[in-house]
């Protein structure tokens, strides 16, 4: 059955009940059309409420679904002739980040993104999308190359955070992330960043300094996980659902705070329900924004990027 939301359980139970009633009606020649109609209408109402206006915690779960489309799946969908590059030229290749060059609607582009696995074996290879310093240095190498050859950059963000293992810290995890933030802020080429799943802390931000930053409808973007926040504030990680309500981590919240520029609509119930629909919407968004950004003078591009991040967020003085 795959991943399901907490609110889907009663829906599935009702759907099972409907199937049983239909089978009973057929086998015993009993007219239960009215009862079945009432239950079907109830299921329809429950689905509409759940999928059209999910809670913050339900969006967190959708963002984490293993079936959720990944960077490579979107690349396959609308980046032509993609060639993946490997290695940071310092230490090694980090499979938690993929990157390379290809063509988007005839425009040469550099594409970089976090990559999770589709199953446990792949997730171990990809380290669950949690990059080490060499992953961020590989990303930076490709971004500097994109600047040199005047290629726009598209990044896909989907990570719970940067890998915090001992080896990663020894090899300069914090410095690698900070270097990306510094360098991305002054790259003389358009950058479009899209959060497609989880956007966790500095691990996400290291690919997120863009001229346009957008989120899929059920993606999340935060400085810490709900479990982490609830452990710190209330000493209880089981209160993650409560924490997600106060964290302002959904696309809707972040658009209101001017942290992101746009929300990209995904399939009802999550991007995994209709990958082609979600990919088409991402492609349409990139196409529109890329044309506007390519029309800008490079100095104007940098000025607007600077102002964008300087003015980000809303503050209240008390």
UniProtKB/TrEMBL annotation:
One of its GO terms (molecular function) is acetyl-CoA carboxylase activity. The keyword Metal-binding does not apply. It is an enzyme of class 2 (transferase). GO terms for cellular component: acetyl-CoA carboxylase complex. It catalyses: N(6)-carboxybiotinyl-L-lysyl-[protein] + acetyl-CoA = N(6)-biotinyl-L-lysyl-[protein] + malonyl-CoA. Belongs to the AccA family. This is Acetyl-coenzyme A carboxylase carboxyl transferase subunit alpha. The gene is accA.
């Amino acid at each position: 059955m795959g991943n399901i939301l907490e609110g889907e359980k009663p829906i599935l139970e009702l759907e099972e009940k409907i199937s049983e009633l239909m089978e009973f009606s057929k086998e015993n020649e009993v007219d239960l059309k009215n009862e079945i109609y009432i239950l079907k209408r109830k299921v329809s109402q429950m689905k509409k409420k759940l999928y059209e206006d999910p809670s913050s915690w339900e969006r967190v779960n959708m963002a984490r679904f293993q079936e959720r489309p990944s960077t490579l799946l979107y690349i396959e969908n609308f980046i032509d002739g993609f060639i993946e590059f490997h290695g940071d030229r310092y230490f090694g290749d980090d499979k938690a980040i993929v990157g390379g060059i290809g063509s988007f609607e005839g425009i040469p582009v550099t594409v970089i993104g976090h990559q999770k696995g589709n199953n446990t074996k792949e997730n171990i290879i990809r380290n669950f999308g949690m990059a080490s310093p060499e992953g961020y240095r590989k990303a930076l190498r490709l971004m500097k190359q994109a600047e040199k050859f005047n290629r726009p950059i598209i990044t896909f963000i989907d990570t719970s955070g940067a890998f915090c293992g001992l080896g990663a810290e020894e090899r300069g995890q914090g410095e690698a992330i900070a270097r990306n933030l510094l360098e991305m802020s002054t790259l003389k080429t358009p950058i479009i960043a899209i959060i497609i799943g989880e956007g966790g802390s500095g691990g996400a931000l290291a690919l997120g300094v863009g001229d346009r930053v957008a989120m899929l409808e059920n993606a999340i973007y935060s400085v810490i996980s709900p479990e982490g926040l609830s452990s710190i504030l209330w000493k209880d990680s089981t209160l993650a659902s409560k924490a997600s309500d106060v964290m302002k981590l959904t696309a809707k919240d972040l658009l209101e705070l001017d942290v992101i520029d746009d929300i990209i609509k995904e399939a009802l119930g999550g991007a995994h329900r209709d990958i082609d629909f979600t990919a088409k919407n991402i492609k349409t968004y990139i196409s529109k924004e890329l044309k506007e950004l390519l029309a800008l003078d490079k100095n104007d591009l940098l000025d607007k990027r600077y102002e964008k991040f300087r003015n980000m967020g809303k503050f209240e003085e008390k």
